[in-house]
Amino acid sequence: MDAYICATCGVQHEPSDEPPDHCVICEDERQYVGWSGQRWTTLEELRAGHRNEIHDDLGLTGIGTKPAVAIGQRALLVQSSAGNLLWDCITVIDDATVDAVRKLGGLRAIAISHPHYYSCMVVWAKAFDVPVYLHAADRRWVMRPDAKIEHWSGETKELWDGMTLIRVGGHFDGGTVMHWPGGAEGRGALLAGDLLQVAQDRRWVSFMYSYPNYIPLPASEIDRIVASIEPFAFDRIYGAWWDRNVASDASAAVHRSAERYKKALTRRL
To answer: 179 φ, ψ to 5°?
Structure first.
């Protein structure tokens, strides 16, 4: 049996003799089924035509796939003397990637912002024998359940070295960012996936219920997101793709971006 992977979102499903009939993640209004219809692939097929590149991204080690797979996000490795954390996840994992990460200190855990990046999280977790932390509010979107997955609940989860997972919601009910107090040379950083989407003008961020289908969030949800990160000091935001980062003054960027977004909802730009 193969654990089939949706070619559009990159999320691996439970092993089966035949590809699933549907990808419920892509059929949800926050994502989409590819224009040529539902397509499936396998990790073996992807390994044959793709490789991972591992290099610096504003002071963190990024791990991304070339050519890009599915949504195309890159993961981030937060290195710590108490153990390394892989933030978000990518679909392709191979022996070369595992060896490279082990040379950088291996992993203590994996934490993922939201279901669009669940990818091959179980394969990663088994390769390093570590847990995957997911918010319980998004449990229904886990397409390959496994004992390595640990669902956490509530508004925050403390990790180690002061790192904290924060439920911000928005894009998904369990949407999560990670506060890293040692980031940005000690000024603090948020690893945000696309819950706080770093804009092309990287002085700004944005927020959406669905990015590909252009469905905005209501003002009340924007206020909730901002309030959830208010207690945490940060000067930098790491987004979901290579170089999509707010390098400095990120806390102020979130506040002015939230105000601009709410004004746009009421045609008051």
So the answer is: -90, 130
